[in-house]
Amino acid sequence: MGDSSNVKVLGTWASPFVMRVRIALHLKSVGYEYVEENLLEAKSELLLKSNPVHKKVPVLIHADKPVCESLIIVHYINEVWTSAPSILPSDPYERAASRFWAAYVDDKFFPALRRVLVSSEEDKKAAMAEMLEGAVLLEEAFKKLSGGKAFFGGNDLGYVDLAVGSLLAWIKVIEKFTETEVLSEAKTPSLAAWADCFSSHAAVKDVFPDVDKLADFGMKLRAKFSKAAAATTTSN
């Protein structure tokens, strides 16, 4: 990888959004310093200074200038480090389609996943139904975008691969918690095969979290949100 002296990533190991940024840097062979934030305890001064608006990870610091929000950072990486592979397609229509599906993942699919993880039982069932419906939509998107190749981006990882793939470990956690397959050979065969290709990719392997460790972290998140919800109910 390249010189890491002027590139830094503020993140936390369990964040799918941080994972996107790190994979993008790996694809471009850009070296970087990774700074782990413990968001369950306290946020560092560097994080608060670098992202004073949202106060969250990921943050890419390049030449002392912070860039925030994962998909914006991925755009930035693709534009600054122009060596192959390109993360976004060169064709305007294909590029627009990639942005559409990445936005769908963040606006619809991830919120449903999050609700399955931390919501009440009643809302959890509705959120799980949304996730399963979303997986079918992403299966169809994969068929159109991949052109029959291994990835959403074709022969190599692209923008939508990073958007969806960064959630893959959390999808496995949800499957473990609910005993329900989100990606299955029966309903989403293309995505099921893609998931294996994604997780074994050289740019991904070193940052793909251990699912059992992530499940333990998910249990802590559940407990934290349940405690907060109970406190709110009591105060009302």
Automatic annotation (TrEMBL):
rRNA-binding in keyword set: no
Class in the EC hierarchy, top level: transferase
Naturally occurring in which organism (per UniProt): Hibiscus trionum (Flower of an hour)
Gene3D superfamilies reported for this sequence: 1.20.1050.10, Glutaredoxin (3.40.30.10)
Keywords: Detoxification, Transferase
Superkingdom of this protein's organism: Eukaryota
Main location: cytoplasm
Annotated GO CC locations: cytosol
Similarity section: Belongs to the GST superfamily. Tau family.
GO biological process: glutathione metabolic process; toxin catabolic process
Protein name: glutathione transferase
Localization (cell): Cytoplasm, Cytosol
Stored PROSITE patterns: GST_CTER, GST_NTER
GO molecular function: glutathione transferase activity
UniProt EC number: 2.5.1.18
Record-linked InterPro entries: Glutathione-S-Trfase_C-like, Glutathione-S-Trfase_C_sf, Glutathione_S-Trfase, Glutathione_S-Trfase_N, GST_C, GST_C_Tau, Omega/Tau-like, Thioredoxin-like_sf
Every GST N-terminal domain range: 5-85
SUPFAM superfamilies: GST C-terminal domain-like, Thioredoxin-like
Reaction(s) this enzyme catalyzes, per UniProt: RX + glutathione = an S-substituted glutathione + a halide anion + H(+)
Domain GST C-terminal span(s) in chain numbering: 91-225
